Amino acid sequence: xxxxxxxxxxxxxxxxxxxxxxxxxxxxxxxxxxxxxxxxxxxxxxxxxxxxxxxxxxxxxxxxxxxxxxxxxxxxxxxxxxxxxxxxxxxxxxxxxxxxxxxxxxxxxxxxxxxxxxxxxxxxxxxxxxxxxxxxxxxxxxxxxxxxxxxxxxxxxxxxxxxxxxxxxxxxxxxxxxxxxxxxxxxxxxxxxxxxxxxxxxxxxxx
Length: 207
Known about the structure:
By secondary structure, the chain is of the alpha/beta class. It has helices at 10-19, 21-32, 43-53, 78-91, 105-109, 117-121, 149-152, 166-176, 191-194; strands at 39-41, 66-70, 97-101, 132-136, 139-143, 155-156, 186-187. The radius of gyration is 17 Å and the shape is globular.
């Protein structure tokens, strides 16, 4: 892999993942299946960025799972998700694939139905985790409903939609114990810390 570029914007993250052959290969495997509105999300990007910002090499083999997201209202069965996982395991057997159709995940999360994968990701717990990536004609494209400033500044903050789920956010962050691996992180554990009165609200979607 080439030396990591400085990470200041979405385009830098895209170049980083394009240059990292193992990450790019996993993205190409997902793209090869032709799933509707399909991405890899969460720790696949977040952990890679945090590793680079801590001076470490990216290592996708350390991931507990590789979260594949797609959106299809026509078949929301878990059997279809299992079949997609089987197909991905045939392409990359050592990868811990986890496939979820976001057209059904609102039921588990207690939300209104999601419109698409971007909307689903926007309902995740942390701004640094609410990010996904795919390949389009071989080029990496990052989707970040709340931008990437928190991710690049090593800030863990609840997403704006998590105001009524702040307890779930706290439990999740404490269970993850991310500072053990990435000690430069700043954890914002209360809503008041995350969104003081002077803080500009997130009101845009960056793709």
